[in-house]
Design a protein that fits this description.
Blueprint (H helix, E strand, L loop, with lengths): L5 H15 L3 H19 L5 E6 L3 H15 L3 E6 L8 H12 L4 E3 L13 E5 L11 H13 L3 E4 L21 E5 L4 H4 L9 E5 L5 H5 L5 E3 L22 E5 L6 H13 L4 E7 L3 H7 L4 E5 L10 H7 L5 E4 L7 H12 L5 E3 L2 H4 L3 H5 L5 E3 L3 H8 L3 H19 L2 E4 L4 E4 L5 E4 L11 H14 L4 H20 L9 H6 L1 H11 L1
Parallel strand pairs: 1-2, 1-4, 2-3, 4-5, 5-6, 6-7, 8-17, 9-10, 9-12, 10-11, 12-13, 13-14, 14-15
Antiparallel strand pairs: 15-16, 16-17
Helix pairs in contact: 2-3, 3-4, 8-16, 10-11, 14-15, 16-17, 17-19
Length: about 500
C-alpha cells in the first residue's frame, strides 16, 4: 500500500474528479459515510457528538458526518471556525444542507472557545492534509481545548495541526483517539512521532481507484502482506542444497551470543545450511550452543585478525550469502579483517552492528549491488556524519539518498523501520512491539535476512521479509507473554507462527 504526502493525495483526488469524472461531492459523501460507519461500529451506544469544522474540504467532510450522525439519531452540535460567507464548494453545499436540518451550528471565530466535555465524542474536521505551518493564536488554543476537554476524539484524515508531508510534529496538534483517513495512509499516520498523535488509524475506501493513486507517482510504501513477496510451500522432493548455505560471521570476547542468535535465526527461517564463522578461541562455545549449525574457526584468538581473513575468503567462495557483524567487536585487527573480506568477496553480504562501524568509504563502494546494511538510528548517524536528532527528523529522505547513492539496500531500524532500495523506493515497516527493545533483536534480523537471501530471494525481498517477520512475530507472542519477559530467542522459536500466517494469507 502506498504512503502519500499532501500533494500526491491532491493529485490522486484531482485525477479521480477531473479525469475519471467522479464528482467531488460524491467523494466527500463517501468519506462521511465511512467515518460514520467507523464511529457507530466502535461506539454504538453514544448519544451526542460535537463536530469542529473548518472552511475547507476537511470541514465539509465534518459537516457531512454531522448530518449522517443526526440521521442515526444522535444529538450533534457543529462548531464552525468562520461564518458561511467564507465557505465555498462542497463545504458550503453541506453547510446549507445542515441549515435545512435546523442543526445547531455555532460560529466560534472571535468568541470564547467552547468546551467539549458534555459530548460523547468530538470530531476534529478543522484542517486536512494540506497544513504546512504551525497553528497559532485562536487555532492553537482551540486544539488545546479539544485535547483537554474531549472524552473521545475522532480526526478526519489527519489530526489538525499535523502536516501531511512529514512524520514530524510541527506544532500544537489534536491528540486523536481514532483517525479515519481516505484512500491511502499519509506519512503522519505511519511514522513517529506524528503517528503517536493519530491514535488508531483506519484507512477507508471512498471510491478513488488504484489507477488514480498511480497518477501520483509515489515511491514510498507501507510494508504489509500485500506488498511482501510470496513464500511458496516447498516441493516434496526438495533438499538442503535447494535452500543455500549462509555464513554468519561475528563474535568476540564477551559478545559471542550475538552471532549465535543470528545463526539460529537464519537456520530457523529456512536456510538449507548455516555456518557460524567465529574466532578460533570461541569455537567450543559455537559448537555447544547451536548443534544444528556448523562452525568455521579462523585463528586461535578471541577476535578476528587480518592475518586469518584469507581462510574465510576461501571458505565463502561457493556459499550463498555472508553476514558480517553480530558481536564482531571494534578491534583494529578486526577492522582490517572486515575491510579485506568485503574487498575480496563477490557474494551477497548482510552487514550489521560493529561490522558497519568498521567499514570505510572504499569498502562501501565495493558493496554496490550486493549488500544489505542494517544500522539503527545511532549507527546510521555515525555512518553519514549527522546527529541522531537530524537522522530522526529527516530519516526518510536520508535513507533514500544513501541507498540510491551507494547501490545498497538500507534497513534503517527504529520503531518504524525503513527499507530503502537503490532504485529510490522505500518500504516502511510498522510491525513490532516494545518486546524488541532489547539486545539481540538486530542480530535476529541479520539472521532472518540472510536466511531469505540464502533461499534465493533478492536483496530487497529478503530485507522486507526479514523485517516484517521479526516485528510480526513479536506482536504475536506479545499477545501470549508479558512483553517485558520476551527474549530474542523466544522470537526465534516462534517465527513459524508468522510464516504460517503468511502462508495462510497467500
Amino acid at each position: 500500500m502506498e504512503i502519500l504526502n499532501s500533494s500526491q493525495m491532491a493529485k490522486a483526488d484531482s485525477f479521480a474528479i477531473n479525469e475519471i469524472g467522479i464528482p467531488s461531492s460524491v467523494l466527500m459523501e463517501n468519506a462521511a459515510i465511512t467515518v460514520t460507519d467507523e464511529i457507530l461500529t466502535r461506539m454504538p451506544d453514544i448519544v451526542s457528538a460535537a463536530v469542529v469544522a473548518g472552511s475547507g474540504n476537511n470541514g465539509g467532510d465534518g459537516l457531512a458526518v454531522a448530518r449522517l450522525l443526526i440521521n442515526a439519531g444522535l444529538a450533534c452540535d457543529v462548531y464552525m471556525d468562520c461564518d458561511e460567507s467564507k465557505l465555498k464548494g462542497d463545504c458550503l453545499l453541506n453547510y446549507n444542507i445542515l441549515k435545512n436540518y435546523n442543526a445547531p451550528i455555532f460560529i466560534i471565530e472571535g468568541k470564547e472557545i467552547p468546551t467539549f466535555s458534555d459530548y460523547d465524542i468530538t470530531i476534529d474536521a478543522l484542517f486536512g492534509t494540506g497544513l504546512s505551518r504551525p497553528l497559532k493564536g485562536f487555532y492553537a488554543a482551540l486544539v488545546q481545548r479539544i485535547n483537554l476537554t474531549s472524552n473521545f476524539v475522532v480526526s478526519l484524515d489527519i489530526p489538525s495541526g499535523l502536516s501531511g508531508d512529514t512524520h514530524n510534529i510541527i506544532g500544537e496538534c489534536v491528540d486523536a483517539d481514532l483517525t479515519v483517513t481516505f484512500a491511502r495512509p499519509k506519512f503522519p499516520h505511519i511514522m513517529f512521532p506524528a503517528r503517536e498523535m493519530c491514535g488508531e488509524v483506519v484507512v477507508t475506501d471512498i471510491s478513488i481507484p488504484d489507477f488514480a493513486i498511480d497518477s501520483a507517482e509515489n515511491s514510498v510504501y507501507l510494508l504489509d502482506e500485500d506488498t511482501l513477496p510470496m513464500i511458496p510451500p516447498r516441493e516434496t522432493d526438495s533438499h538442503k542444497g535447494h535452500f543455500g548455505h549462509a555464513v554468519i560471521t561475528g563474535g568476540s570476547q564477551g559478545k559471542s551470543g550475538a552471532v549465535f542468535i543470528a545463526s539460529r535465526a537464519c537456520a530457523r527461517c529456512g536456510a538449507g545450511l548455516t555456518t557460524t564463522a567465529i574466532p578460533g578461541g570461541l569455537i567450543s562455545a559455537a559448537e555447544a550452543v547451536n548443534p544444528e549449525i556448523m562452525s568455521f574457526a579462523t585463528g586461535k584468538g578471541t577476535h578476528f585478525t587480518s592475518d586469518t581473513v584469507s581462510e574465510l575468503i576461501d571458505f565463502v567462495k561457493d556459499k550463498t550469502v555472508c553476514a558480517i557483524g553480530p558481536g564482531i567487536g571494534k578491534d583494529k585487527d578486526t577492522r582490517d579483517f572486515v575491510r579485506e573480506l568485503v574487498k575480496q568477496t563477490k557474494l551477497p553480504l548482510v552487514i550489521d552492528a560493529d561490522g558497519l562501524n568498521l567499514l570505510d568509504a572504499r569498502s562501501i563502494k565495493k558493496l554496490s549491488g550486493r549488500a544489505v546494511l542494517t544500522p539503527h538510528i545511532g549507527e546510521f548517524a555515525e555512518m553519514i556524519g549527522k546527529t541522531t536528532e537530524e537522522v530522526l527528523s529527516e530519516r526518510l529522505e536520508l535513507a533514500k539518498v544513501y541507498a540510491e547513492n551507494n547501490g545498497v539496500v538500507l534497513v534503517l531500524k527504529s520503531s518504524d523501520t525503513l527499507i530503502a532500495l537503490p532504485d529510490g523506493a522505500v518500504y516502511v515497516n510498522i510491525t513490532g512491539t516494545p518486546a524488541l527493545s532489547k539486545g539481540g533483536s538486530g542480530d535476529c534480523l541479520t539472521g532472518l535476512i540472510s536466511a531469505f537471501i540464502s533461499q534465493r530471494y533478492d536483496l530487497a525481498e529478503a530485507a522486507c521479509l526479514g523485517t516484517y517477520i521479526l516485528g510480526r512475530t513479536a506482536e504475536i507472542i506479545s499477545e501470549e507473554m508479558n512483553e517485558r519477559t520476551i527474549l530474542t530467542t523466544d522470537i526465534i522459536e516462534n517465527i513459524g507462527k508468522t510464516l504460517d500466517e503468511l502462508a495462510k494469507n497467500t
